[in-house]
Amino acid sequence: MSDRRRLVLASQSPARLGLLRQAGLAPEVIVSGVDEDAVTAPTPAELAKALAEAKASVVAARPDTKGALVVGCDSVLELDGRALGKPADAEEATARWKDMRGRAGVLQTGHCVYDTLSGRHTAATASTVVRFGEPSDAEIAAYVASGEPLHVAGAFTLDGRSAPFIEGIEGDHGNVIGLSLPMLRRLLAELGVGITELWAN
């Protein structure tokens, strides 16, 4: 019987789950159900952190997560000082891409870890600069028609169909996909947990 701590991901994101699994972790997924529109903060970076804390705290408070380490994350794209989450519809996704092309934005991902054994938690935001290419109107229309941008923060993702429209990034690649593993390691360490202790056998 392993004494490895139970790890719970408070997110329905397949990309986040995939990143954790690739890093040797085996989290359970429990979706928080937090109303993201009800969470506000003065800056995009603070908003991302507040959303991550909200998600993690809701799941950490559940009786069935007692003793677990709960990880919450949320991402927004900061452009012109605004926090851009998932676009509401195809029209908004199209306008967003026309606004982003040829420019750079900052992908802000909030991370929060709750240790339900100690009752302690810690949180921080990781920031990665994303430089967008200049897709044509036809390419944007085709991308929006694929449906992908409606399901991801900022209306783009590095590991999907929009990858050819992104010229480069400055910072952690995983952070743009949805979770910074180096940030997670640091937050776990603050709570006295080594990430290698959580590796699945």
UniProtKB/TrEMBL annotation:
Keyword annotations from UniProtKB, A to Z: Cytoplasm, Hydrolase, Nucleotide metabolism
Coiled-coil ranges per UniProt: none
Cellular component per GO, a single term: cytoplasm
Reactions catalysed: a ribonucleoside 5'-triphosphate + H2O = a ribonucleoside 5'-phosphate + diphosphate + H(+); a 2'-deoxyribonucleoside 5'-triphosphate + H2O = a 2'-deoxyribonucleoside 5'-phosphate + diphosphate + H(+)
EC number: 3.6.1.9
Required co-factors: a divalent metal cation
Chain ranges passing through the membrane: none
Localization of this protein: Cytoplasm
Catalytic residues as annotated in Swiss-Prot or TrEMBL: 74 (proton acceptor)
GO biological process: nucleotide metabolic process
Enzyme class: hydrolase
Family from the record: Belongs to the Maf family.
Protein purpose: Nucleoside triphosphate pyrophosphatase. May have a dual role in cell division arrest and in preventing the incorporation of modified nucleotides into cellular nucleic acids.
Identification of the protein by name: Nucleoside triphosphate pyrophosphatase
Lineage of the species this protein comes from: Bacteria, Bacillati, Actinomycetota, Actinomycetes, Kitasatosporales
